[in-house]
Design a protein that fits this description.
The chain has 52 residues and is mainly α. It is 73% helix and 0% strand. The longest helix has 17 residues, at 4-20.
Length: 52
Amino acid sequence: MMDMQKCQIAWNFFLESCEKHGISTNLSFYQFIQSVTVEQLESMVRQSELAG
């Protein structure tokens, strides 16, 4: 099971990346969590830490 804190960090990173690149998304947090793999989630968390 994915850690909720990591899920929230990855979700925020995803939304910021979409906004930065002018991509609009109607994806919900639940849909995001259902579609992201653990590897993708970990990658987004690492990228967020590097950027932050």
